[in-house]
From TrEMBL, chain A:
One of its GO terms (cellular component) is nuclear exosome (RNase complex). Keywords: Cytoplasm, Exonuclease, Exosome, Hydrolase, Magnesium, Nuclease, Nucleus, RNA-binding, rRNA processing. Its cofactor is Mg(2+). The lineage of its organism: Eukaryota, Amoebozoa, Evosea, Eumycetozoa, Dictyostelia. Its main location: cytoplasm. It catalyses: Exonucleolytic cleavage in the 3'- to 5'-direction to yield nucleoside 5'-phosphates. Its EC number is 3.1.13.1. This is DIS3-like exonuclease 1. One of its GO terms (molecular function) is exoribonuclease II activity.
Automatic annotation (TrEMBL), chain B:
It comes from the Eukaryota. It comes from Tieghemostelium lacteum (Slime mold). PANTHER family: EXOSOME COMPLEX COMPONENT, EXOSOME COMPLEX COMPONENT RRP41. InterPro entries: ExoRNase_PH_dom1, ExoRNase_PH_dom2, ExoRNase_PH_dom2_sf, PNPase/RNase_PH_dom_sf, Ribosomal_Su5_D2-typ_SF, RNase_PH. Belongs to the RNase PH family. It is found in: Cytoplasm; Nucleus, Nucleolus. The keyword Cytoplasm applies. This is Exosome complex exonuclease rrp41. GO terms for molecular function: exonuclease activity; RNA binding.
Length: 1199, 248
């Protein structure tokens, strides 16, 4: 305590004074503000080994580490101008080259930036200071204005600039004196570009050395080309800006003014408040940069939730993502809604065209009159081709379609040749058609897969650097010879689960196993324990460690088709944390005691949480587990090929440990399945949704690393079993942590969808004649469940996909932010839900683990609070979304690459949406959703579907169908859910990802059966199926005859021939074929139920025939015909073993009687009929059903 | 101007204090000869003059037969803020609030039963206001009551705390008060260990509340050590004066 005559202050404070300064207030001119200031004596110099500043101030935010690679130690102090102009250079942090380090940011500089350079720039400086804590670059903050030894009182005669000079010089002097007599010989240099300051410095104190940034870079970082290039481009930009300013001052700028000036800030904010201007984020149309819109909250004025902004002039220099102020144009300039309804498709999968048409049928238009805040980021781009190599600037065309070309001043245009580069935007001048930017760094040669992927990552703001040395050193060691042992003391407090059978079930080939399930029997089979064990990542990742901070920054592991970006280093994710079989592993567990009720149900009587040590005895993959359940795998069948689908290392040979028997595993699995069925039923009864999303996998060519094959993910029951137990574990943990941290538990909620958007799906349901009800999630689930068209199970998939798009995303949140009633997880129908089960790949789970551990009454590791948790959850949501979009875009990139190598013809697709100029189709075989453009600039786009002389003259697009008016007066109509054939190819594009293009080649059956009634449409696909198969047959026969002509692999020929055959068949034999179709299709319903496998549809069979026409020609027709029945291999086997010849024959005879098909043809079909006892009943029943349904349809139609 | 940042990267607040430091305190007791007790109290730029009259006979017949009544009148000088304000007729809301606060705080701490049928008048005059008015008033009243020689169980020490960007902050000044964060006023009996009043404007997160409260208690204790030091010094001064008088 220091006592002076002015009062009592604590002894870290030397002096206090009061500032009086004027401030402009809004109401009445100038008011005076008094502000008390204290000058401290406990500000440290931040040098970690400084003897004078001990005890080192540990409450400071930045730890300082000067021991970098530089031999002679140098600290630089940049002045205001250097920071304002060249902050980017300081921000660059690459691993390969040493970045700029050991920088002191003075408080004077910081304050100047805070008050003069705008919020965004200030945030950048702040985060630079904050991040340097983790990177040990030693960029730190020095409170010179609050330090009694560096405080510079303002001399009244000094100008502001002079005062700044004095302040900076004083700090430099202090640093020099402070560090001078230290043994370590540290030099302090002032970095400035300002000639005045340089001369001032030399005038005041000759011993302070000042240096320009360029000199500094050249002397210290001459190897770091990136820094020098960046310096160069910024300097160029500054020179140009200066010239422009000069021109404007002189009034010599004769160039035409393209754009209108923005309103000034005061007017803007008052107008926005009064409501005469609208504020919103501008979304630019991906397909037409001259169209944009903003979404607005207040719909009373405009009757629409959007304002369109059409034309460059009206968009007025705003870039996609900027927050802008928009003024409405007079109503006479508003547009009818039809012209614009596809503006919103920038994200085809996100919110599919919920454009709300205003009641007037007009959409308001507006123009941008001001920018509320710029939202510019780094853009990847490519130099415009045919650039003159001698010009002083180049145009860069950004990767993102929505961003206009950027003008980049440069001395060396060669540098951009054939490269993808990162460009940062700086300004957009009134007189310029293009924004100005500067070069930051380059990504790589354009066109290569690696570069394109990198570009994608940058576009999505995902920066992934290597693990820093500090992190790698802190990791536990584990090698093959010497696996990481569990420390002895862990056995003291962990529950050792030797009495459970523990197994892990994951996708084949996955190395990061973060969950395992165990079963223990307490009282025979009536009282069992089921445990879910999650890798104990929080045990390894200590709160606040460098690894923890880095993992939090990454947020999630990002899976791209051919690689992944881990959240945790491989030692942890693949070895020490991963719950591998045969090793004891630490786990965080949830164990339920489950009692079997007398009525067959199950009841959870007790839930236990805690840390455990587990011994996993089976490291299975999904298919293996499913096969064990189904009895395909029994003891002894340990070859890879025994497992359905096979695959490398798929057999159980190296997967079982501790001498466990398959029979025992089977029993455990069956117990799990039984409990699962009960749990699922219960959850569905309260309204859980079962929604689908398209997941695509690629198979890669080993040599070239190019995508070779696209595979869709399969779903087995065991997937659901595992998922269900994970959901149960998550929900249990959520309840637990919420009870202990009422206001800061990290949970996950799924908000109720907007009813307006749900209503927008109604027309689709109506079109198919399904019931639609969305009042609660239960009813929605029921509607979706019942919306199955037995002939076309894609209808169901598409409806579900659409529902997914409409329903909002689930998000993380801190319980303090949201009312308890809103915790509900809509999709899973669970009151409280969180993420607990994948800590290896999601950071949220690590937090949940820590919270769970603390909630069990263990030592408080860290103080969580709602504020921090909210920040964290926002960050995690952001990361999550970014990883999702990058995943989607990368998939698209791979698809694009794939089709670039292998364009496809005649692929089956389903129409899912109609747009003003296009159809949206879904290609199930490749999981692709794309548009088929029908109109191009209001002109009809020719499609290969129509012959050249019979192109459509006019295309009419209605709500649920498209009508093509052909030249010869005929009409072709395509409805939503119709199946079409498309050609898939890519278009060359130098600047962007090669876009996937689709063209209609054929409308299936609709074109053949114009006149057939509505009910026939339902048969379409089966018919088509059959037609194809028949075609195949006839084709094969013809192949037999002309085998010689078929030696080469002629894809196109096959297709053309087939269509010809098909026509012939239809013409000649339509009646009989039709009958056959009808019968078969009815059979088909019952045979495979809801599991009709469409990948065996027409397109596939064509592909098959393409791949092995020669093989097929060897009379080996049965495999293709098998597909007709969509028989699973299991069924085939079963059928073969039974060999129920009698029944088969009898039914075959029945068909022969009914149809007039040639005997020989039919023989080819008959052997593969998988007819079982039940079919005789089933067929007749199906026929009845079918008749009924057609009658119903007719009745409906007439009403 | 961009949004103020209330805590710098170095963890210093706008006026150069750390989050757990109080402002400069300056105390004078016995500043007025006419009153029975008086104190001048400065906390940073907040300056307050308190005078105490009593215990004396009740003017109007509102006296209680078994104990004394504490009355308080709070007023801001028209020059106390940077802009001179016209004095309002009657009492405004803030004044009433502080009056009630002080009345309740001291009715519970003063040994009122020793002074039946009498009243104690406290007049609080704010000379300059720079945040923390309530806590400063309470502290000043304690000193003035001590100066008046009124029997009290304990000191009443008050302190306000807040929470800016998730960091608990002690003793707000005017600029920080206007940040719109929570404002928690805590007054305690530092020796007896009881809470006299706890008053919070706007919300604070439940998990942070405890740390904010802890900081408040620490702040009150610190203020107590300073106040009691000053009181001891003042009383020894008085004693020595008296001795000198007696000697002469």
């Amino acid at each position: 305590m220091t006592i002076s005559d002015r009062g009592i202050i604590n002894n870290h404070i030397d002096e206090n004074y009061t500032l009086y300064f004027p401030k402009k207030s809004n109401s009445s001119g100038i008011s005076w503000i008094s502000k008390e200031q204290y000058l401290r004596n406990d500000i440290t110099c931040k040098y970690i080994d400084c003897k004078k500043c001990k005890p080192y101030d540990t409450t400071g935010l930045i730890s300082f580490n000067y021991t970098s690679s530089n031999k002679d130690k140098l600290i630089i102090i940049p002045d205001i101008k250097t920071i304002v102009e060249y902050l980017e250079i300081f921000e660059i942090n690459t691993i390969t080259e040493t970045p700029i380090c050991n920088v002191i940011i003075l408080e004077s500089v910081y304050r100047y930036v805070q008050y003069n350079s705008g919020q965004k720039f200030f945030e950048r400086l702040k985060s630079l200071l904050k991040n340097s804590k983790n990177t040990s670059r030693g960029i730190c903050f020095f409170s010179n204005e609050l330090f009694s030894q560096t405080f510079q009182d303002r001399v009244t005669s000094d100008s502001f600039q002079m005062h700044q000079y004095r302040t900076i010089v004083k700090s430099c002097q202090w640093f020099r004196d402070h560090l001078q007599d230290d043994v370590s010989n540290i030099k302090v240099q002032l970095v400035t570009q300002d000639v005045d300051l340089q001369s001032f410095v030399s005038g005041v104190d000759k011993s302070i050395s000042s240096i320009t940034l360029l000199d500094y870079l050249q002397s210290r970082h001459s190897k770091n080309k990136e820094l020098l290039n960046l310096y160069d481009s910024i300097t160029q930009l500054l020179i140009e800006q200066k010239q422009q300013q000069q021109q404007q001052k002189d009034g010599s700028n004769t160039s035409e003014q393209f754009y209108e000036r923005y309103l000034n800030d005061d007017i803007l904010s008052s107008e926005l408040k009064s409501g005469s201007l609208f504020q919103g984020k501008i979304h630019v149309n991906q397909h037409n940069r001259d169209e944009a819109f903003i979404k607005i909250q207040n719909q009373t004025v405009t009757n629409s939730d959007k304002i369109l902004i059409i034309g460059k002039k009206n968009i007025n220099r705003s870039v996609h993502g900027d927050s802008v102020a928009v003024q409405l144009l007079p109503e006479s300039e508003w547009l009818p809604s039809l012209n614009v309804d596809d503006i919103d498709d920038s994200n085809l999968n996100d919110n599919d065209g919920e454009m709300k048409v205003s009641k007037l049928g007009l959409v308001p238009t507006g123009r941008v009159v001001g920018i509320v805040s710029r939202n510019w980021r780094d853009y990847v781009g490519t130099m415009e081709k045919d650039t003159n190599m001698n010009s002083s600037f180049v145009f860069i065309i950004p990767f993102d379609y929505r961003i206009p070309a950027i003008r980049v001043p440069t001395r060396n245009p060669q540098m951009f040749q054939g490269k993808r580069v990162i460009i940062r935007l700086d300004s957009w001048d009134l007189h310029s058609n293009y924004p100005t930017g500067h070069y930051v760094s380059d990504v790589g040669e354009s066109g290569s897969l690696e570069t394109e992927l990198q570009s994608l990552l940058i576009e999505h703001d995902i920066s992934l650097s290597k693990w820093s040395q500090q992190i790698l050193e802190s990791l536990p060691k584990s090698t093959v010879d010497e696996p990481w042992p569990i420390p002895k003391e862990e056995f003291d407090y962990r529950r050792v689960l030797k009495d459970h059978h523990t197994m892990s079930i994951d996708p084949l080939g996955s190395k990061d196993i973060d969950d395992a399930i165990s079963v223990g029997y307490l009282d025979g089979d009536n009282l069992i324990e089921i445990g879910v064990h999650i890798a104990d990542v929080s045990f390894f990742v200590k709160e606040g460690s460098a690894l923890d901070i880095e993992a939090a920054r990454r947020g999630t592991t990002i899976y791209l088709p051919d690689r992944r970006f881990d959240m945790l280093p491989a030692v942890l994710s693949e070895d020490v944390c991963s719950l591998r079989g045969g090793f004891p592993r630490c786990a965080m567990s949830t164990i339920w005691k489950i009692k079997k009720n007398s009525n067959g149900g199950y009841e959870i009587v007790d839930t236990w949480f805690g840390r455990t040590i587990i011994y996993s005895c089976a490291e299975m993959h999904y298919q293996l587990a499913q096969d064990i359940i189904d009895g395909v795998i029994v003891q002894g069948k340990d070859k890879d090929s025994d497992v359905t689908g096979g695959g490398q290392n798929a057999g159980y040979k190296n997967r079982l440990f501790q001498g466990i028997q398959i029979s025992q595993l089977k029993k455990d699995l069956l117990t799990l399945v039984e409990v699962f069925r009960y749990l699922k039923k219960q959850r569905e009864s309260v309204g859980a949704l079962d929604l689908e999303s398209i997941e695509v996998r690629f198979q890669f060519d080993k040599q070239t690393n190019q995508p070779e094959k696209i595979v869709l993910k399969k779903d087995l029951e065991i997937h659901q079993v595992v998922a269900e137990f994970m959901i149960l574990a998550n929900a249990s943990v959520a309840t637990k942590i919420h009870s202990h941290f009422p206001s800061c538990a990290l949970l996950r909620r799924h908000p109720k969808p907007n009813p307006i958007q749900l209503e927008s799906l109604r027309y689709l349901f109506d079109l198919c004649g399904f019931q639609y009800n969305y009042d609660s999630n239960k009813e929605l689930a029921k509607s979706l469940h019942n919306a199955t068209d037995k002939q076309d199970h894609y209808k169901n998939i598409i409806l579900k996909l659409k529902a997914v798009n409409v329903i909002s995303e689930a998000i993380y949140f801190s319980t303090g932010q949201v009312n308890v009633s809103e915790f509900y997880h809509y999709g899973l129908a669970i009151d409280k839900y969180t993420h607990f089960t994948s800590p290896i790949r999601r950071y949220a789970d690590i937090i949940v683990h820590r919270q769970l551990w603390m909630s069990l009454g263990h030592k408080k590791v860290v103080n969580y609070d709602d504020y921090k948790m909210n920040e964290l959850s926002n960050h995690l949501n952001h990361r999550h979304r970014a990883s999702k979009t990058v995943q989607r875009d990368a998939t698209e990139l791979f698809q694009s690459m794939y089709f670039q190598w292998k364009p496809k013809d005649n692929v089956e697709a389903i129409v899912t949406d109609l747009r003003s100029n296009s159809l949206v189709v879904y290609v199930p075989e490749y999981g692709l959703r794309q548009r088929v453009y029908l109109l191009k600039n209001q002109e009809v786009n020719s499609q290969p579907m129509f012959s050249d002389d019979n192109q459509p003259v006019r295309i009419e697009i209605n709500e649920s169908n498209v009508v093509f008016h052909l030249k010869d007066q005929t009409k072709i109509t395509i409805y939503i859910f119709d199946h079409v054939l498309v050609r898939i190819y890519t278009e060359q594009n130098q600047y962007h990802m090669a876009p996937i293009k689709l063209e209609l080649t054929k409308v299936l059956t609709k074109s053949q059966h114009h006149n057939s009634a509505q009910q026939n449409r339902l048969l379409t696909d089966n018919k088509k199926n059959l037609i194809n198969e028949t075609k195949e047959l006839s084709k094969l026969m013809s192949i037999d005859q002309s085998l010689s002509s078929f030696k080469s692999n002629l894809i196109a020929d096959v297709v053309i021939d087939l269509t010809a055959d098909e026509k012939q068949l239809l013409q000649n034999n339509s009646n009989s074929v039709y009958n056959l179709i009808k019968k078969f299709s009815v059979l088909d319903i019952k045979e495979t139920g809801s599991k009709i496998n469409y990948s065996h549809g027409k397109s596939k069979s064509i592909v098959n025939s393409n791949l092995s026409p020669v093989k097929n020609s060897n009379q080996d027709a049965s495999p293709t015909i098998l597909k007709l029945w969509s028989m699973t291999e299991k069924e085939t086997k079963e059928y073969k073993t039974r060999s129920d010849r009698y029944l088969r024959d009898s039914i075959t005879k029945k068909y022969i009687d009914q149809s007039n098909i040639v005997e020989s043809d039919f023989e080819k079909i008959s052997p593969s009929l998988s007819v079982k006892d039940k079919y005789s009943n089933v067929i007749s029943k199906a026929e009845n059903d079918f008749r009924k349904s057609t009658q119903m349809k007719n009745v409906k139609k007439y009403h | 101007m961009s949004k103020l940042s209330y805590i710098s990267p170095d963890g210093l607040r706008v006026d150069g204090r750390r989050s757990n430091e109080i402002r400069r305190l300056n105390i004078k007791m016995g500043v007025s000869n006419r009153a029975d007790g008086s104190a001048y109290y400065e906390q940073g730029n907040t300056k307050i003059l308190v005078t105490v009259y009593g215990p004396r006979e009740s003017v109007n017949s509102k006296s209680l037969y078994d104990r004394a009544v504490v009355k308080c009148e709070f007023s801001m000088s028209s020059f106390s803020t940077t802009e001179r304000k016209q004095r309002q007729k009657g009492t405004d809301r803030q004044a009433t609030e502080i009056q009630n606060l002080i009345k309740q705080a001291f009715e519970s701490t003063v040994h009122v039963q020793l002074y039946p049928r009498s009243q104690i008048d406290i007049f609080v005059q704010v000379l300059q206001s720079d945040g923390g008015l309530k806590s400063a008033s309470i502290n000043a009243c304690t000193l003035a009551l001590i100066d008046a020689g009124i029997s009290m169980k304990d000191f009443v020490c008050a302190c306000n705390t807040s929470c800016i960007d998730g960091i608990p902050v002690l003793d707000l000044n005017n600029i920080e008060e206007r940040s719109g964060g929570p404002d928690l006023l805590l007054s305690i009996n530092p020796q007896l260990g009881g809470v006299i009043s706890l008053n919070m404007d706007s919300k604070v997160q439940q998990d942070l509340f405890e740390s904010v409260l802890d900081l408040g208690v620490k702040g009150c204790q610190k203020i107590f050590t300073i106040l009691s030091d000053q009181v001891k010094r003042y009383s020894t001064e008085l004693m020595s004066n008296q001795q000198q008088l007696q000697q002469s």
